[in-house]
Amino acid sequence: xxxxxxxxGLNPVWQRIIILPELKLxxxxxxSNTLHCASGKGFNYCKTLKLLNAPxxxxxxxxxxxxVKYIKELxxxxxxxxxxxxxxxxxxxxxxxxxxxxxxxxxxxPSPVITKEEIANLKEKIFEEADECGAIIICGxxxxxxxxxFYKEVLTEFKDKLSLIDSYKGVEEALKxxxxxxxxxxxxxxxxxxxxxxNDGASFCxxxxxxxxxxxxxxxxxxxxxxxDKRYDYNIPTINVLNPIGAGDSVGAxxxxxxxxxxxxxxxxxxxxxxxxxxxxxxNMPSEFxxxxxxxxxxxxxxxxxxxxx
Length: 310
Fold this sequence. Notes:
By secondary structure, the protein is of the alpha/beta class. 35% of the residues lie in helices and 27% in strands.
């Protein structure tokens, strides 16, 4: 059996999804349905990898009543976890889905404050699992109080493992550890690189951080994967989008699954990840999809290859 994929998602949320016929600002809005679930990038990565039957281990923080519900749902999902209980409450997130306007709005609580002791305890737990894990995913924002060297120190311990970073804030030191792949969306790449042009942003990342691969999504628009000498472009099929939240997490998880578990080339792995992300958009719950639908969408995603030099 393949070694576990360690997922570090330090900023989980307890999510409330409110489905409205139409969101009208300044007026009373009556929901047609309300859903509650554990969420955040770490949890969404686990949901996708669980659907793909990949062995996972999730590391992070949890606190208060929302933290209890989060851990309970994680256990119900059957995902192994190492969590540090915090004095601060796990944050909440409210997603508003306006059906007639096909718009999704998110309202996210401020991140909780994590103490130095809580950080040190979680780091120790993560290091204890290093030998059991063959790949590592760092995803999402970090809570308040985090030492920005945390990710760098973890990646130093996992330096010989396959690594993916799905984040763009406060990860500059981690990126200097030369992860195998950085996955961001187009707006995040612009913010990380201060470049408006996609190729210029990719060039900045390869020069600054010596990446192996850079994956860039852009909602319904074309997605791109860059290596040091190739650019791969992927068209995104037109679908009926219900909720795009968590789609990017499914892209990253599907990519890691194909590359690490099934040992497929990165360009094909990213295509599969994109199919997972698109499929998840067809559901109201984040990062949930039907595997048969993923197969259908995979066939609809055309891949074109071109030479590229940063």
